[in-house]
Amino acid sequence: MKTDELIAALSRNVEPIDRRLIDRSMSIALAIAVVVAIGIALIALGVRADLIAPRAIIFTSLKLAFAIGTVGVASSYLARLMRPAGERRGFLVSAALPFAAALLLAAISLGQAPSSHWDKMVMGDEWLECLISIPVIAIVPFAVIIWAVRRAAPTNLVRTGALSGLVAGGVSAIGYALHCTDDSLPFVALWYGGTIAMCAVVGAILGPRLLRW
Amino acid sequence: MTAETELKALMIASQEGDAAAYRLLLERLSRHLRAYYKGKLAKLGRRLTESEDLVQEAVLAIHIQRHTYDPVELFTPWLHAIARYKLIDFLRRDRASIVDVPLDEAAETTASDDHIGTESSFDLRRLLRRLPKKMGCSIEAVKIDGLSVAEAAKRCGISEASVKVNIHRGLKVLSTLIARRTRT
To answer: What is the ipTM of this complex?
Structure first.
């Protein structure tokens, strides 16, 4: 086939494109992901019984702020990264900011507590549940986000996969935070931060397989 | 940077459905891509005959992904990212070659052109026959025989909306078929 023939064929009867398709797909995917994550967390695990107690409100809000912050920063970078040449310097640093903030608060909180409490503050009561729940709840959100990314054309598949995993992990943490009763900052930094980061690593590994075009 | 300004204007017009601008754009891009791939393949010690396959893969990719160009951004980096992505993908498919694509500048994709040997090893009609019937029929009617969407809908026995969807999906499948065919 001659290239001119291909060009003639492709430029015959062209339709205007939908400029907002990509952003709309990502918004829809995010909304579905959040609803699914909260739904699974509430149905499978149940909302924490003391949700309206003052201490529970404060800590649930902190966990949600961390999760939503992660999702916000990561998804805004992902929205760029899913287009060719979407990489931006400095964005990976901002994606790490919520984690840095959580670690800093965790360190301050540990510094103010006697060292005999550290073990309880870091490990909490349900670290294993957190370790398992966040990645498991993240599976469906991850699939939905990958669906949206596949409607565009990322050129850095490892990084795009990692960001997709990061968003999915963050969304999953939003759901899990409504159930989790471990109220300490070191716990949140280590187990929420660690499992969300794990989701990003899995995303980076799967990215090149799932996102090729 | 005149190439950037001109190509960007053509791209925006193309996105709005201007067929003449689109044809002109693809013609210009194919010349840039040809020069780019010939240069890269020569550097990697590959046969230059492969470059036209790559040009066509990239042109098809540009067509399928033309909605991913955001007019607030520069056009040349977008073009370059697609050209480079398709080159790396092409080399990776070839198990014999070890991928080590040298870093390059966006300006290289808008380098000088070269118009010799513009035939690829693909046979469009044969590839179309491997597509699901509705996809092959829609693409053949609208893109090759130049029928309107309404006429194509009648010929293929499907609705007009379905013709559009089948063209879009069919071109994606076509690009996968081209990418997956075995190389020797």
So the answer is: 0.87
